[in-house]
Design goal:
Chain lengths: 562, 562
């Protein structure tokens, strides 16, 4: 290992300037990192010069354990995952986030296209009249609808709302297009943005006034086909989390109290945030049953019993940019973002080290040439990598900067490394260091990136497994929640009992955590009824709520949650 | 050739019904065509049974030569390229159109990603305050802005408009992100929909209140780099038309009168509609110069002359779903849509023929098996194809239906074809017929599809070439326009002269065409100054406008246009 993560003396301003001019003219110079990856504070840093100042300026001041919410807000801004958008008092995704979203989009799109789902693009506006058709469903959205009332300086005769979701836009066309059982299944998906003008404070990725998502809407002749699709799509959502984002999820069904109000039943993938012990809903796939087909009169003639009408069975399923927020919350740390290699736009950053003011121009040039060779060979091996050749920054400052941005692998290369024919690698997620012979880079780095992906998943999975407690004693529930667990308990599945459980697990005087700060005092709610039950529910088992007399129907996962 | 395009007796309803039931249970039955491809009139057709009625019901009543505008409107609805959307009095793209758009999107996206353009996703709303920043530019959009004034039932303190384009949303961030010449170039693109609430009647694909597009926005240190990109992107736009849509275009520069008002200069690809002799703008790539960087204060320190500020050079470039409309107008005919194979979701439709009520169940089954073998072998060869096994429809009705939908290749297969080991193929664009040995399908059909693509391009190109007249005599201009030509004339490029030319080429009493109907009476406007000039402009040549005393600056292409 060539270079400890310590300070290098910053070069004198005069030297910097000369080098910048030289670089600006050099035609083959590897491109500077993208603005979205560049530190905003570099001007100040260039002035103060030293390492500590730089490191402090770009670091995150809140800690993940100390103040999770502040840490998260600070992290996504400083790591440039979102930008604040003043005009609508909300956040928008950065190009770095869009890279992740598009990776997910391509992965999911290929799989639904394979299933025969067609891409649609319905309009963004809908009128009050059509919204009224599905009043129950839309009621929840009503306070958040953004209404267009004017075009230019003229009032619209009929105001239109920007879609909060597209049932009311799409289902009248389902009714028009589906005229025979041969038109089924109808499987449509669209990638778009929807608007929910939240009055509450927004949370990047989790609650923003406009967000990107996909919404799939399908119709089937039979309940069986519809039910199969709901589960198949849920498995794809689990794949997005587990295979791309290195986030383990529990697949299950929502209780009546937590299901999508307009549908028959809802399936969900639920993730877990170790830092605060909260559950978080990952994505949902709904069987709408025949509720909407009755509302919108979507029928076909029964192919078996001629003359009989059948209302089609519908599903809807959606995945939003929330996935990015969940991933950030789970993997990142006090140094910044930690990205799983499969979705990182930049998988490895190559940083020259050991170059000082005393290094001769010839040695600099030879070293730069070797760096470029390494970069090219990695690129050929399919590794998304770049070289950080910025002048005027110490290696330590660069280390901090790329750690903040979450790049999975740092590759340091100095004259001593060169002499030994190796590079030094540092894993972002664990801090682990090692060396790799230059000749082996093209084979070892891709494998290493996959190993990192797996290690990140395994770590998150171990934590979720450890903190998913199967309890049969009510007295243990609250202590479990207070020590950052979710619980799986025998439950009667009744909405009234669920409400009561929520109340019973609120705390009037919240306990203090080890840091002397109050622990979350919210009550727990049901996350899902896991498809994989922890063990057999012995017949006659009572619901764990001591006030409830009913028999338990399932092991249900509860937790404090988002 | 087995089957002439004539009527087959429709099967008796009882037979139909039996077969439908049988099909519905058969697990391996190839999937029925998608709803978006299915005739809406089939119930009536099934009742009337005969061939002529069916053919008449699904056909287009207007003709391309007789009433181009009515023909187009009818075509895009009946061929299911758009659906009318009542809520916003506009049209929306169908899944068939979305397939085309996504093919274009993937093609273009791969090429700009290769250039290093990052994908962005800026919000859809912007406030009056930020719009006012670029008043001149936004003035043209002002009457078409859709204003959100309420969220739920509360009035917004500051109303926000839905973006008609994103300069005002994006450039404040350019100012924030670009802090040094090392942050350049900044190259962003987004795929989204924009809203321009047109008061005028909408035209599918050409003028709708919401439409899909991509908008690229970039910033460079130097004018040279910026100018190079403008042309590179224009070449990609030409590629979309020429390589994907089989539409020839002329690349050129817009005159001052026709350029994007906010920019320095505009480049364009211009297409030509043979049916009415009009030019149509295909897509534009703008050099914005430093206009916006001065408005939005987007500067860097001059890397050469330290301490000096440089306003960055910006470009913007956009391609919208309009491309689909241009393609439809050029290739389609009185029978319906004609799609170039490269962008057709369904490239070949396989139709069983020669099966009558007398055919035995065994023969039917053997024939169906062979059809499925053909379909599978074509699919393996990479041909996007499907089989039309719908009962109760004559082959002739199916021929008409798939002609209406524009499928490039019809493959007919009957017992007599089977006996000879061939299929009969019919080219949608030319009506040409031929046979192909079944054993050669996997090699011959892909080649044939490429031949069709080329033939469609060549036909359109020949027509554009023939109708692009280089004129040096003013007296010939009006007759040329009246016989469906565009003209290339010596022109001074002055906006006032251009206005005058427009007036001079309007006709008070329009001439009547060969069908006795009046010919278009609009004046001509400049389409572009072609980069490839038709010949050298002799020094001292006068502007062709007889009232103009100025010297011509270029050969400029003029025409009646969209």
């Amino acid at each position: 290992m060539e270079q400890e993560k310590t300070a290098q003396p910053a070069e004198a301003p005069a030297v910097q300037q000369q080098q910048q001019e030289k670089k600006a003219k050099a035609p083959k110079q590897p491109k500077a990192p993208k603005p979205s990856q560049q530190p905003k504070q570099k001007k100040e840093v260039a002035v103060v010069g030293g390492k500590k100042q730089g490191a402090e300026l770009i670091g995150i001041t809140a800690t993940k354990d100390g103040n999770f919410s502040a840490w998260y807000q600070e992290l996504v801004l400083k790591a440039e995952m979102v930008e604040y958008y003043n005009e609508a008092s909300t956040e928008m995704p950065s190009t770095a986030s869009m890279y992740i979203w598009n990776t997910i989009r391509n992965w999911f799109q290929a799989r639904i296209a394979e299933r025969g789902v067609d891409e649609a693009s319905f309009p963004m506006f809908l009128s009050k009249t059509s919204l009224d058709k599905e009043k129950d469903h839309v009621e929840g959205f009503a306070p958040e609808l953004a209404w267009v009332t004017k075009a230019g300086d003229k009032d619209l005769e009929v105001p239109v709302a920007v879609r909060p979701t597209s049932e009311a836009v799409m289902y009248p066309y389902f009714s028009k297009w589906i005229r025979s059982h041969r038109d089924l299944p109808l499987m449509l998906n669209q990638w778009n943005s929807v608007v929910r003008w939240e009055a509450k404070q927004t949370t990047p990725f989790l609650r923003t006034r406009e967000f990107l998502w996909q919404e799939g809407h399908t119709a089937y002749l039979t309940e069986e086909e519809s039910a199969k699709e709901v589960r198949d799509i849920l498995e794809l959502y689990a794949g997005v989390y587990e295979e791309l984002l290195a986030v383990p999820v529990v697949r299950g069904k929502k209780t009546e109290a937590e299901k999508f109000a307009g549908g028959a039943w809802t399936t969900t993938v639920e993730a877990y945030i170790p830092a605060n012990g909260r559950g978080i809903q990952g994505a949902t796939s709904h069987c709408l049953g025949q509720n909407f087909s009755k509302m919108f009169d979507i029928t076909v003639e029964d192919p078996v019993n001629k003359g009989e009408k059948i209302h089609v069975w519908q599903n809807s399923w959606g995945l939003s940019t929330r996935v990015i927020g969940v991933m950030v919350m789970i993997h990142s740390d006090d140094k910044g973002l930690v990205l799983p290699p499969r979705i990182a736009k930049l998988q490895a950053i190559l940083i020259p080290v050991g170059i000082t003011a005393k290094t001769t121009p010839e040695d600099r040039e030879a070293h730069a040439k070797k760096l470029e060779e390494i970069r090219v060979s990695l690129k050929k091996a399919g590794v998304r990598c770049d070289t950080d050749l910025r002048d005027g920054y110490t290696p330590a400052w660069k280390f901090n900067d790329w750690e903040l941005k979450g790049v999975p692998l740092r590759i340091e290369f100095g004259p001593k490394d060169a002499a030994q024919g190796v590079v030094t690698v540092v894993h972002r997620h664990s801090g682990e260091k090692g060396t790799i012979p230059i000749d082996d880079l093209a084979t070892k780095v891709p494998t290493l990136l996959e190993d990192i992906q797996k290690a990140m998943y395994d770590k998150a999975d171990a934590s979720f497994t450890e903190h998913r407690l199967v309890l049969e004693d009510w007295e243990k529930v609250l202590p479990a929640l207070n020590t950052k667990n979710v619980v799986i308990i025998p439950f009667c599945e009744a909405p009234a009992c669920e409400d009561r459980i929520k109340d019973m697990t609120k705390e009037e005087k919240p306990m203090l955590g080890p840091d002397g700060k109050p622990l979350p005092s919210m009550g727990m709610k049901s996350l899902c009824i896991p498809f994989t039950q922890p063990k057999e529910l012995v017949s006659g088992t009572k619901c764990l709520n001591p006030e409830c007399k009913a028999e338990a129907k399932s092991w249900t996962m509860f937790g404090r949650s988002y």
